[in-house]
Amino acid sequence: MTDDLPLVLLHGSATGSHSWAAVRTGLEAHGARVLAPDMLGYGRSPTPSKAWQLKDEMAHLRGWLDMQGVGAFHLVTHSIGAFVGLHLRLAVGSRVARLTLVDPVVVSVLRVPGEEDALREVQTLCDRFMRALPDHDAAACLLVEHWSGAGAWNALGEKGRALVAGLAPRLRLDMTASAADRTTLAELTSTAVPTSVLVGERTSAAPRSVSRLLAEAFDARTVVVPGAAHMIPLTHPAAVVEAIHADMVAS
User: Is the domain covering 7-108+184-250 a CATH 2.130.10.10 domain?
Assistant: First the structure.
């Protein structure tokens, strides 16, 4: 027996809805209704203004959910998509009936004693990205290789590099909003929701700490994905499908 909640897959930065392609195929094979929006400035979504704020993303995603006729849903996020997704949950309330966080990056929850190293990781990445930003290729390369390792930029190929470099102005908005946010862990997890957290065995300090903090606050099931670093939906889609399907069956 499986639940009939539609699955809404929310991508991270420097990717887009296409990053869920293999996960989506696997979930649809289990009979799930799967939807994957593009955040503003990604894919086919409109380009945001230079004055973009998180509230604009909330309006965009809420409008998209309504246009798709989505009531209650199972929200799945990756990376900084967790930052956007947890704020979306605050905005739409109980419509988020289940939550899956894949290697989440939510900077604000790291602003507590004991998480200095993890916070420093994302602050340093943000600072380096901003300094490099006049050169879109250099800035995008920094981001890609931080999360995927040395050589990952060249491995994208010419088309892939052009795509990510073209997102550099949008990535600046993501990083600026994430760095400025001061929403606490208690505020983001103030109401209970069935939650699973997937974390890469080889991921870095920031998503590892965020995963632990969110899992504790939500009393979540934690799944460590063997051999995975940060880009789990791309590198280990079967593990994501397996974890989500297990939750569908259990409910």
Answer: no
